TrEMBL record:
<feature type="domain" description="Pterin-binding">
    <location>
        <begin position="119"/>
        <end position="373"/>
    </location>
</feature>
<dbReference type="InterPro" id="IPR011005">
    <property type="entry name" value="Dihydropteroate_synth-like_sf"/>
</dbReference>
<keyword id="KW-0808">Transferase</keyword>
<dbReference type="GO" id="GO:0046872">
    <property type="term" value="F:metal ion binding"/>
</dbReference>
<keyword id="KW-0460">Magnesium</keyword>
<comment type="pathway">
    <text>Cofactor biosynthesis; tetrahydrofolate biosynthesis; 7,8-dihydrofolate from 2-amino-4-hydroxy-6-hydroxymethyl-7,8-dihydropteridine diphosphate and 4-aminobenzoate: step 1/2.</text>
</comment>
<dbReference type="InterPro" id="IPR006390">
    <property type="entry name" value="DHP_synth_dom"/>
</dbReference>
<dbReference type="GO" id="GO:0004156">
    <property type="term" value="F:dihydropteroate synthase activity"/>
</dbReference>
<dbReference type="InterPro" id="IPR045031">
    <property type="entry name" value="DHP_synth-like"/>
</dbReference>
<dbReference type="GO" id="GO:0005829">
    <property type="term" value="C:cytosol"/>
</dbReference>
<protein>
    <recommendedName>
        <fullName>dihydropteroate synthase</fullName>
        <ecNumber>2.5.1.15</ecNumber>
    </recommendedName>
</protein>
<dbReference type="GO" id="GO:0046656">
    <property type="term" value="P:folic acid biosynthetic process"/>
</dbReference>
<dbReference type="GO" id="GO:0046654">
    <property type="term" value="P:tetrahydrofolate biosynthetic process"/>
</dbReference>
<keyword id="KW-0479">Metal-binding</keyword>
<dbReference type="InterPro" id="IPR000489">
    <property type="entry name" value="Pterin-binding_dom"/>
</dbReference>
<keyword id="KW-0289">Folate biosynthesis</keyword>
<dbReference type="Pfam" id="PF00809">
    <property type="entry name" value="Pterin_bind"/>
</dbReference>
Length: 380
């Protein structure tokens, strides 16, 4: 007798097929072979008791504090545990229940059927001299040479910015930012590079964003998270996409003792509010990209928590970007200068993609293209 553990969904389906299970049965059984966990915050006590009983009745479980049965508090945090099949049943069953369980059911349905987006690699070009990684700094003709190289290496998107947002960095004037990026935009148009790759502008300055959009750019990467309505208006006018990033504070102050009660929940609430704002102005979710802002007002533990819980943010129905390329969180795990952080970068990005991110913002396109190609084969 031999016993071995089945790994991916592909492995499970292959094993069931090898047993001779019919195709319809395979799909049913695979759902029973994936265990899911959902943390529910501030669930009304009557709802917790109902959900507990409903979960137990189908073989799932709801972990609750001891006082729930006695209704000692009006709300409780809970953990729902079960297979994908259990969650599908509960997502339908709780739609008819009171005390907020309809909302729980609707949220479960979002998590169970997230929109799938293609995996894309976003290369980084900085048109300034003070970005934290010297290897990303290029101006005018040099930038175009680097862009050509990134296209050859397999970049899907190239993100160009002219102002550093590293911790402690100072803001620059609008005219200086435009002066830095304008020559690159002009050369992109002249060389018709916008026909070969998607361009993203890393800016929250309206005049800079407008110039880039008129130069063939189709994504605005806004580290202020759509704080300025003018940026959203420009995105709509040019039929572009908007990347909303979360940041606590500003680049100058963000790493001065960042604090969260629950970083995943608070970043999630931020996205809910900004998505609602953008939709109210006319944007569609498929044109919104979410970036949790690794290193932007976060400690190492905050960053790690967000990467481990990246899948949570897929339920919004938007694309999810991760950008940890060569950042200092790697140095905090294992000391390494910026130039030596590629291995740590790949480890973080592969984990983030495994958890649901589909856009990887990086300095090293070729290395990421190879790593992602191998990862995609392994996950099948």
């Amino acid at each position: 007798m031999k016993l071995y553990r089945l790994g991916t969904v592909t492995d499970k389906k292959a094993a069931l097929k090898a047993l001779g299970v019919e195709s319809g049965g395979i799909e049913i059984m695979v759902k029973k072979m994936e265990l899911l966990y959902f943390y529910i915050k501030e669930l009304k006590t009557p709802a917790a008791n109902i959900l507990k009983q409903d979960a137990l009745s189908i073989g799932a479980e709801l972990a609750v504090p001891g006082g729930v049965i006695l209704c000692e508090q009006p709300t409780y945090d809970c953990i729902l545990i079960g297979t994908r099949k259990h969650m599908e049943i509960l997502s339908r069953k709780e739609l008819a229940q009171p005390f907020g369980l309809k909302t729980v059911a609707q949220e479960l349905q979002k998590f169970l059927s997230p929109k799938i987006f293609p995996l894309q690699i976003m290369g980084i070009i900085n048109a300034n001299e003070d970005s934290f990684y010297a290897g990303s700094r290029f101006v005018a003709e040099d930038a175009i040479v680097r862009i050509e190289k990134m296209i050859e290496e397999g970049a899907d998107i190239i993100d160009i910015g002219a102002v550093s947002s590293r911790p402690g960095s100072e803001t620059v004037s609008e005219s200086v930012e435009l002066e830095r990026i304008k020559p690159i935009c002009d050369l992109i148009i002249r060389n018709r590079l916008d026909e070969r790759v998607t361009f993203s502008v890393d800016s929250y300055t309206p005049s800079v964003v407008e110039y880039a959009l008129r130069s063939g750019f189709t994504i605005v990467n806004d580290i202020t998270g759509a704080d300025n309505r003018e940026i959203v208006k420009l995105v709509l006018e040019h039929d572009a996409k908007l990347c909303i990033m979360h940041m606590q504070g500003s680049p100058k102050t963000m790493q001065k003792n960042p604090h969260y009660e629950d970083v995943t929940a608070e970043v999630s609430t931020f996205f809910e509010e900004r998505i609602e704002k953008c939709e109210a102005m006319g944007m569609k979710r498929e044109d919104i990209i979410l970036d949790v802002g690794i290193g932007f007002g976060k400690t190492l533990e905050h960053n790690l928590t967000l990467i481990r819980n990246m899948e949570h943010f897929t339920h919004f129905g938007c694309e999810v970007l991760v950008g940890a390329s060569r950042k200092s969180m790697i140095d905090k795990i294992i000391p390494a200068p910026t130039e030596a952080r590629l291995p740590g970068t790949l480890a973080i990005h592969l984990k983030a993609v495994e958890e649901g991110a589909n856009i990887v913002r990086c300095h090293d396109v070729a290395e990421h293209r190879q790593a992602m190609a191998v990862w995609e084969v392994l996950r099948q």
